[in-house]
Amino acid sequence: MASAARELRVSYAFVERNLNLVKRYWGLEVAWFIYSVSHSLAMGFIGAGMAQVGGQPVDANQLVLYLLVGSLVWSYLAVVFDAIGEMIAWERWEGTIEYTFMAPVARSTHMIGSCLFAVGFGLIRTLLIMLVVVLFFQLDLSQANLPAGLAVLALASLSFIGMGITASTLPLLFPERGGQMVFIVQTCLLLFSGVYYPVDVMPGWMQTVAQFSPATYALVGIRASLIEGRGIAEQWATLLPLLVIGLVTIPVGVRIFTLAEHYARRTGRLKRSG
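^ thats the sequence. predicted structure below, dont judge the formating
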């Protein structure tokens, strides 16, 4: 028990360190926040103007809600994925990677701290974006089932934590361009997961790939909760794949990271700066 409490305190040290990095690079965070808000607003305006663009009557309110839910959910999942996937890249940028890896701290403790920060930071950031968005659009959430939406988001977070841990091996193995590789992985998830369109409109082979992305199930589940008001009991077809992906990707990601760490130590990649 005492050991677990110690590891939890050490994990919080990584949360606190990441918070200090946010404070140090506050200008960068403000810039990314403006970018995310602009992106979400652009999606909303696309939905609002679709009737004029297509020359056909559409349910603009429904389309705006569909696009904005996709934008906000993706904003959260992308932050979680980035924060975990770039935890090694930040170590390189700060010049602390050798100190962190040589410190008497379990790698699981390091990862737990990074994951806690990623989830908390992602939730707060997405909430702030949503507060700005509702100033521009009147979102009808009268039918929303918030508990079901939160349940889907919690399971989706587990899946993205596992994928983020796996992606974090890229900056470890490729010091010069590993960070950019994480961004490319994130872009592929955006393409295949139906963030702004149903996956049914994609070619068959892309729909097959989409079945392996947790974001696909997360977006379907949260839209069903917020737009159609479906409860948890009605969403097992969405929740079960998210749970399975989370239970598989986290231990697999940790194992891959462990192997990558041993390889990086053996080949001297911890000494090289990106």
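The radius of gyration is 20 Å.
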